Target: NhaP protein
Amino acid sequence: MTLAISEPTTTAVVLLIFGVLIAFSVLFTRALDRLGVPVVLLFLLLGMMGGSEGLGGLSFENYEVAYRLGTIALVLILFDGGLNTAHTSILRSLAPASTLATIGVFGTAGIVAVFARLFGLSWPEALLIGAIVSSTDAAAVFSVLRGGSLRVREPARSTIEVESCINDPMAIILTVSVVEYLRVGGGFSPWAIVEVPLQLLIGGVVGAAIGFASRWLLNRITLSTTGLFPVATLGVAFLAYGLSTIAHGSGFLGVFAAASVLGNGPLPYKSGLTRVHDAVAWFAQVSMFLMLGLLAFPSRLVDVAGVGMTLGLVLAFVARPVAAMLCVIPFGWKRADVIFTAWTGIRGAVPIVLATIPILAEIPGAERVFDIVFFIVVVSAIVPGASIVPLSRRLKMLDDSPAPPSATLEIHSRKRMDGEIHVYRVTPDVAVCGASLSEIVFPEHASVVLIVRGDEPLAARGVTRLREGDYVYVLCRHEDEPRIGLLFGAEAEL
Model:
């Protein structure tokens, strides 16, 4: 994008167009949520409309800048995903997700490459396309499974999410290996087979170590304002990516590991931090997909529409389902979980970012590969995305657990306090169901501070009687949690 700093009017026009694109994207997200289509796909299409061949007329063809900014955006998105992923989900899904992230990615790449060759592409183009589109995308997956109205049951949900966070190293290694092979010639190194698990191990260890060190430090310092805590955690995200990458590990997995350690432990201003990072992640998604949309030229896409659409359908109906099923069937899952996991292989910005690598390496025909990949991503996102909602209902994959409360309560503090708010849902089998607050014997430093009944928040009074389905917010010290648990049962999942 060419911007003259001395011309404020040009800058104002660019910002105006960018603001309009963002506003339209946000306004249409609810409609796409109901359909199950990744909302980030809309950002991509609006970016095309704002490009040099669209209504906006913004000229942008800097693939190096797109690669750098795309990497930063993915770091922010993965950090937010790690903050909001429970350790129980990670441990539950680690084995199947790791299998999908390695063997599944390799199998998907191979199947797509074979079909691409059958459809008339050269072997270099076929191998590049197979490697580039082999991994699922965390931003697209999170926007469907977390940003929409879906509440998919376990183990499929956590496996799909964790897979999308850890499968990038395999796709990157495959893409770089093919690029190096085409650029300098020679055979593929068997070291690549060892390199993938080694990168995952190094990235996970380095990221977890940074997470523990950061959590220890944040709990022992006092900052002048709560606004500095998100700044500190953003620094943790970039530090985790940088150190993990320098150590020859997976930077993306390092970010996810650091964030999951932070999110699953005590932190000051924790609820505020998660809100800020959620907003930052959404802004990163919007900006990244709009930027990548600007890189697409509709006039060039027309020439590859046929092969792009065909390979997109192959990826959605053949490559991903076959590779994924072979990976998860050995784990003894139910048939519905296998089918849903195999089908939900949504592609997004990662393949488009990877498609810039051959262009930066000046591989012949790389721009055509980029255009085909762009088309594949759009098709493979629409086909699985639009069918996820009806498929989840048909397979009875929707989680029947209660919806989270419509109101929340939190404490803002610049340092860790000796007491936290815990949320419990009243069920018929807990001791407090049907009792009034005055009849419940609480520990000395514990008290109910809010009750949410349906869509209505209620003041916690002694005469208030707890009913089934109520969400109760209890302030208590850490040592009193076991006793509160005897009264209210397990904490509610929000």
